[in-house]
From TrEMBL:
One of its GO terms (molecular function) is guanylate cyclase activity. The keyword Methyltransferase does not apply. It comes from Diploptera punctata (Pacific beetle cockroach). Residues 231-262 form a coiled coil. It is a single-pass type I membrane protein. Residues 1-223 form the Protein kinase domain. It catalyses: GTP = 3',5'-cyclic GMP + diphosphate. This is Guanylate cyclase. Keywords: cGMP biosynthesis, Coiled coil, Glycoprotein, GTP-binding, Lyase, Membrane, Nucleotide-binding, Receptor, Signal, Transmembrane, Transmembrane helix. Belongs to the adenylyl cyclase class-4/guanylyl cyclase family. GO terms for biological process: intracellular signal transduction; receptor guanylyl cyclase signaling pathway. One of its GO terms (cellular component) is plasma membrane. Its EC number is 4.6.1.2.
């Protein structure tokens, strides 16, 4: 064994005979076996590659059959090793006494698929007899290897049978029936001489099988175009492999870039873009105070009752449909969705990027937009129900920052958040409940219509004068939309800010019945926000311009001089008309 030296044989170095660590030491091949290479889909095997691999196996087996060892006895893909230069070295030959137990037990049926049928029948008749290989059996094994290299679908292709069932059919050949062999249909793209050689190698009668020298002659056309110099062939193979690696690296790089974009998109959904960029750079995001922002809160009136009468899956589908519709609308505005908890929806404008006093207009127009969308929304499992959205908006100072490490959240803190929540909870269905501070900002911006609601008792705040936001003037809305489009470089769509994905699409109803997975909202040709009549009992109107600003008012509200003229409650009771 130690005297056997050939470029295509895996050299035997020595053996350890001390039980229980009985082992054989051979030369190490860095690229593993042919089985490993075939299972790696990234390795492309062209005709030159296959011809070189097949030629190495044939040369190694010719030398082995002419040596004192005479036979291999266990030739299969896993015993054909490949070194760093892509040279195949036949391994696991000789020393049958060391392998008697492993060979005799034959525990792995897959490895036996390369074994000749005559050897399988002997082992089946008497399991105590040690089956020795033959040169003709090695030819049969080589035929299976040749088939697998070209078909690349396992030793017997892709049959619907298990390995043990295949062995049963190979051993028990029915009289008058052809022997069970691999599927030749998978070799339809191979050369005819390759298919003919494989069929001759796995012939049922051993004497009809050729020897390896004859096989080499039959497969010589496979090496057409290859250089006669072995080193040149090896360099050509290495060059092709390097090119394949370059293409593979480019493909993996593109996949990495695409996955990075998906990760960044998910991060931008969780956090504002400016905050996400700081976290990506590894910077610590400090909490920041904002002098004035506008906060939007909304919930669904009767959501608890509807949830009790619906299945959990129906509730999830409903909320997904609704919030997908909302998300498609608010992305047209300079706002940031803070969070959704159950049926509660929270949006803010004016942070983390300040936008002057435009935050009030962004939230107000967005609220009216959402209100119109809700009127067209249909619940999938309750199509006859009308969705009752209750909205509250308020302006004031807040503090914002990132909370948490494992799942960071961008949170808002301050009395403004509580007041905005109270505005929503004390509102009415299909109404936009607006605070005095927010109303004053909107009046300075112009174009909005209000109706005084009167004094409303709020938890922790006492009586507060509030208003209903009824609508927006079309001229002001169009002007604001154009200004917003200029800032965002996006086209305008009928007064509301346009989305690029909706430019060429016809108007659609915002209905969970029509689009259960992804809802889109398209503005009608001439959307008019009709004034919402106040159906509540008449209240004594008051004079909001002469009320004192609350201690939590934002600086932009406190700049209004008329707010500092305090009057008594009796003076507030003077009636006034709707303001525009």
């Amino acid at each position: 064994m130690r005297d056997l030296r050939h470029d295509n044989l895996n050299s035997f170095i020595g053996a350890c005979t001390d039980p229980p660590n009985i082992c054989i030491v051979t030369e190490y091949c860095t690229r593993g076996s042919l089985k490993d290479i075939l299972e790696n889909e990234d390795v492309k095997l062209d005709n030159m590659f296959i011809a070189s691999l097949v030629g190495d196996i044939i040369r190694g087996m010719i030398y082995l059959h002419e040596s004192p060892v005479r036979v291999h006895g266990n030739l299969k893909m896993s015993n054909c090793l490949v070194d760093s230069r892509w040279v195949v070295k036949v391994a696991d030959f000789g020393l049958q006494e060391f392998k008697r137990e492993d060979f005799h037990t034959m525990s792995r049926c897959v490895g036996l698929l390369y074994c000749a049928p005559e050897l399988l029948r002997i082992s089946q008749l008497d399991s105590t007899v040690m089956v020795k290989g033959t040169q003709k059996a090695d030819i049969y094994s080589f035929g299976i290897i040749l088939y697998e290299l070209h078909a690349r679908h396992g030793p017997f292709g892709e049959p619907e049978l298990s390995a043990s069932e295949i062995l049963h059919h190979v051993i028990n050949t029915q009289p008058g029936q052809p022997p069970f062999r691999p599927q030749l249909e998978l070799l339809e793209n191979s050369f005819n001489f390759v298919r003919d050689c494989a069929v001759e190698c796995w012939a049922e009668i051993p004497e009809e099988r050729p020897d390896f020298k004859t096989v080499r002659t039959k497969l010589r056309p496979l090496r057409k175009g290859m250089k006669p110099n072995i080193f040149d062939n090896m360099m050509a193979m290495m060059e092709k492999y390097a090119n394949n690696l370059e293409a593979l690296v480019d493909e993996r790089t593109d996949q990495l870039v695409e996955e990075k974009k998906k990760t960044e998109a998910l991060l931008y959904e969780m956090l504002p873009r400016s905050v996400a960029e700081q976290l990506k750079r590894g910077n610590k995001v400090e909490a920041e105070s904002y002098d004035c922002v506008t906060i939007y809160f909304s919930d669904i009136v009767g959501f608890t009752t509807m949830s009790a009468e619906s299945t959990p899956l129906q509730v999830v589908d409903f909320l997904n449909d609704l919030y997908t519709c909302f998300d498609s609308i608010i992305e047209n505005y300079d706002v940031y969705k803070v969070e959704t908890i159950g049926d509660a929806y929270m949006v803010v404008s004016g942070l983390p990027i300040r936008n002057g006093e435009q935050h009030a207009a962004e939230i107000a127009t967005m609220s009216l937009h959402l209100l119109e969308a809700v009127k067209r929304f249909r619940i999938r499992h309750r199509p006859t129900d009308n969705l009752m959205l209750r909205i509250g908006i308020h302006s004031g100072p807040v503090c914002a920052g990132v909370v948490g490490l494992k799942m960071p959240r961008y949170c808002l803190f301050g009395d403004t958040v509580n007041t905005a929540s109270r505005m929503e909870s004390t509102g009415s269905p299909l109404r936009v409940h607006c605070s005095l501070e927010c109303k004053m900002l909107l009046e300075r911006l112009g174009g909005y219509t209000f109706a005084e609601r009167g004094l409303v008792c709020m938890k922790g705040k006492g009586e507060q004068l509030t208003y209903w936001l009824l609508g927006e003037d079309l001229i002001h809305r169009a002007r604001r939309s154009e200004e917003r489009d200029i800032r965002r470089h996006k086209p305008r769509l009928n007064g509301y800010p346009g989305r690029s994905s909706l430019k060429t699409k016809p108007p659609q109803r915002c209905s969970s019945l029509e689009s259960p997975k992804r809802l889109r909202f398209a503005v009608q040709r001439n959307p008019l926000l009709e004034a919402i009549a106040d159906a509540s009992p008449c209240r004594k109107p008051s004079h909001p311009l002469l009320l004192e600003a609350s201690s939590s008012s934002c600086p932009c509200i406190e700049q209004c001089p008329v707010l500092h003229q305090g009057i008594t409650v009796d003076e507030r009771s003077q009636p006034r008309k709707q303001t525009t």
